[in-house]
Amino acid sequence: MLCFPNLRKNTICDRDGYNSAVMPSPRVLLSIDYEPWFALTRRYDSLSDAVQRRALDGGFTCSALEPILAMLGEAKASFFLVGEIAEWYPEIPQRIVAAGHELGLHCQTHRPLVDTAELQHDLEVSAQWRANFDIRGYRAPMVGISEAAYPLLEKAGLAYSSSIYAPSGNLLQKGNVWELPVSTLSIFGRSPSLNAPREFSTGLLLGGEVPYGSSFMIGLIPDLVLHILEREIRAGLSPVIILHPYELVRPEAFLRRLGRDVASHPLLFPFTLNKSNFLKTLLKHFPVSPLGTYLDEVLRA
User: Fold this and answer.
1) Using an 8 Å Cβ cutoff, are 139 and 106 in contact?
2) Gap between the Cα atoms of 66 and 69, Å rounded
3) What pLDDT, in 10s, does the model give residues 176-200?
4) In the chain, which end has fewer C-beta atoms inside a 10 angstrom radius, N or C?
């Protein structure tokens, strides 16, 4: 039986330094980057024809939603949605919101958006559906962002981002945009620089940070990730983790269609593993909430 501690003081960081504030009760900040199955491979980044992209998805993002909502039950999560899915299937964002989950922006079409010109274009073409659903949060594709992106997010009306990796307990203020990092475990106990970009990289690992909030690590070492989550929550922290729809509901002929990609890039393999049992265990033993809910509680404290 897991036992969760009471409130403690965690760190809020801003551009001028560190301030201490009482944080809400610890929980896992659960996010699902809701993207087409083919986003896992970079082969289709340059495919621009919307009809072809929807045909390639083959209805997966539509058919996967109800099983995922059923898995979540009464638990609530943040769904960072690829905007083209909202164009293919307008019922998807409506259903996510109707089920009580937070809806955020992942991108309009899935590709790297570290380049600010690319990001600006994405923000422009996603503006209408974001306005329709009052989108406040952003998760960069592949958790890749630059410091120059935050003014663009602010101008687009976004309140927070979750687009870097950093040790749990850090909440950064970038102008008027908050950054809730995807969680890492700092092995050496160092205080790293938290400027973007901080993506999943060799440099991050060599710096002694284990990005356990990534679904890559959840695929490789699910039991160890659960133990880390328990330790973090007992310490009063609220870690951020990522899952994807194709990790919870298996797309048709998934491994056969990705076989060439996995053979060429073996590090893709952990993303192809089914993580529905991990989610089931997580929901059984840990409190969870959307990122936006947690941020609202922090700002009210």
Assistant:
1) yes
2) 5
3) 999 999 999 998 876 678 988 988 8
4) N
Name residues whose C-beta falls within 8 Å of residue 290's C-beta, 6 or more positions apart in sequence: 29, 30, 31, 76, 77, 78, 101, 102
Say which CATH number the domain at 103 has.
3.20.20.370
Instruction: Give the CA dihedral 38, 42, 45, 50, nearest 10 degrees.
Output: -10
Does some domain include residue 112? yes
How many structural domains comprise the chain?
A: 1
User: What are 277-286's pLDDT values in tens digits?
Assistant: 999 999 999 9
- Residue 187 three-state SS: coil
Write the pLDDT tens digit of every residue in 134-185: 999 999 999 999 999 999 999 999 999 999 999 998 999 999 999 999 999 9
Q: Containing domain of residue 176, as a range?
A: 14-295
User: Quick check: 59 and 236 in contact, CB under 8 A?
Assistant: no
Domain presence at residue 163: yes
Residue 9 within a domain: no
Q: Which structure tokens are listed for 226?
A: 């659960």
Cβ(216)–Cβ(270) below 8 Å: yes
